[in-house]
Structure formats: structure tokens, C-alpha cells
Amino acid sequence: MRFNFGTGIVIFMLLFMTALIAFVIFAHRQDVNLVHDNYYEKGVEHTRQMQIAERSAVYYGAIEINDDGNFIHIVFPAGLAHTMQNGNVLYFRPSDHLKDTSEPLNLKGNVFIGTKENLIPGRYIIKITWQINGLDYEVDKPFIIK
């Protein structure tokens, strides 16, 4: 059998199509971690979120987060802790949304003690949300779990 120009084109096309199909199968099996599942709803409430961020900016530097090895301590200013209502702490893992966990904000004095049992070591953004007199507040602080 002679190897001519037509045979080379057919072999090239078969190899190209095989590689293309293999890539499509590979790409389809990859897990895609989106930051949010519902981008449309997040976009609609963008103005509200900006107002919450503006209201909460005064508390960003006043809230401290510490790790003692077993627990995470979030320390609030004493005046703020007594007025907070309906709080929540979200441990947001940017690299994998399946590792996100949440706890209600139950204060002991002006300190929240969070558990680390469901957290794996790595970078988190701790999102603290609460209400005061019907207004929402949110403080996001980056934190490394060791």
C-alpha cells in the first residue's frame, strides 16, 4: 500500500477528531466550582448589598478573629454585641463552595466561639451577618485555618 497525500489527510483528520472527542469528554467530566449558584439574584440585590457594606464599614476594624487551635474566637466591641440580633457566621471557602459551613451567631458576652470540626485547613472568608433595629449588617474578613 502506498502512502499518498489523501491517506495523510485522512489519518490527520482521524487523529484530530479523536483528540477533539477526548478533550470534550475530559472537559465535561471536570467539576466547576462557581462562587454563587444564582448570579442573577445576586446581581439584582447589588444595590442593597452596597448599602449593607457602607453601613458595616465602621465595624470592619473593630471585629477581631483569633484561632486558638480548637476554636475560632470572634471578638466584637462590647457596645455592638449588646445590640446585635439574628446573626450568622458563614465560613466561605473560595476554592470549593462544597466546603462552606454556617453557624448561628450565639454570643457569650461579646465573644463568639466557633467550632473548627467541619473546616479543613486553608483560606476562608468569614462572613459575619447580623441585624440592628431591622437593618442588615455584614463584615467579611479573610482568615487562614491552620
How is this structure best described in words?
- 7% of the residues are buried.
- The protein is α+β, with helices and mostly antiparallel strands.
- A hairpin with an 8-residue loop joins strand 3 (85-92) and strand 4 (101-104).
- The strands form two sheets. The protein has a four-stranded antiparallel sheet, with no helix packed on it. A four-stranded antiparallel sheet has the order 4-3-7-8.
- It is elongated, with a radius of gyration of 25 Å.
- It has four helices and eight strands, in the order H-H-H-E-E-H-E-E-E-E-E-E.
- The longest helix has 24 residues, at 5-28.
Compose a concise summary of this entry.
This protein is of the alpha+beta class and 146 residues long.
The number of distinct β-strands equals 8
Low-confidence segments: none
Structural class by helix and strand composition: alpha+beta
**How big is the Rg?**
25 Å
Number of helices: 4
Query: Which of globular, elongated, flat, extended, rod-shaped describes the shape?
Result: elongated
Order of helices and strands: HHHEEHEEEEEE
Classify the helix fraction into a percent range: 25-40%
Query: What strand order characterises the main sheet?
Result: 1-2-6-5
**First-last Cα distance:** 66 Å
Biggest β-sheet: count, sense, barrel? 4 strands, antiparallel
Strand percentage: 25-35%
Feature tags:
alpha+beta, 4 helices, 146 residues, four-stranded antiparallel beta sheet
How does the SSE layout of this entry go?
Blueprint (H helix, E strand, L loop, with lengths): L4 H24 L10 H6 L1 H11 L7 E4 L3 E5 L2 H4 L3 E8 L8 E4 L2 E2 L2 E5 L6 E11 L2 E11 L1
Antiparallel strand pairs: 1-2, 2-6, 3-4, 3-7, 5-6, 7-8
